[in-house]
């Protein structure tokens, strides 16, 4: 766990998938069904975790070319069938959100999950009491790693996107987004991931889990 920052944040913006909730099993199954439907060899679970970063509107044209729309339909057919029943908060996530709110932070979510789906999951968990705004893919003009979702999440709050705003996430796209917006990048995950994959857009803090992140507050 990193040493605490010099000042507590005024705002914390969390990624959603695999930062506050465990959704890898759902994502892996959605990718498997998509690849199979298009007659392609599915990625392994590890390949999905290594490669499935970014919003589908950015990633699928690169992966599937002219069949991107077809691939997206298959992906979401599986997703809508399974995502709520499998939605699982990460250990300590609720206590982390409660801690952030009790410290006076503005709390938001900035995700590359489609905004309507993101907000459906948030409502399903009853986390609206802690999270003031949830911005997902297609809500802003561009998705992460562009800074637009952070700007939208802070719009109207009077909080500028600066070092007092933590952007917390588990992928390079989250850190790239934080750097692009001028916010304080916080990596959520293992130290090995930080050292091996994130050198170009380094985090200022990192925590392995929700309990460590709560301690940083």
Shape: globular
- What is the helical fraction, as a range of percent? 40-55%
Would you count the extended β strands for me?
8
Rg from C-alpha positions? 17 Å
CATH homologous superfamily title of the largest domain:
HAD superfamily/HAD-like
**What about the largest sheet?**
6 strands, parallel
CATH architecture of the largest domain: 3-Layer(aba) Sandwich
Q: How many angstroms does the end-to-end distance come to?
A: 12 Å
Instruction: State which percent range the strand residues make up.
Output: 15-25%
Oligomerization category of the chains in this entry: single chain
Please tell me the total number of domains.
2
Succession of helices and strands? EEHHHHEHEHEHEHEHEH
What name does the CATH topology of the largest domain carry? Rossmann fold
SS-based class: alpha/beta
Biggest sheet: strands side by side, in what order?
5-4-1-6-7-8
**Average pLDDT figure:** 92
Number of helical elements: 10
Pathway: Organic acid metabolism; glycolate biosynthesis; glycolate from 2-phosphoglycolate: step 1/1
Catalytic activity: 2-phosphoglycolate + H2O = glycolate + phosphate
Protein name: phosphoglycolate phosphatase
EC number: 3.1.3.18
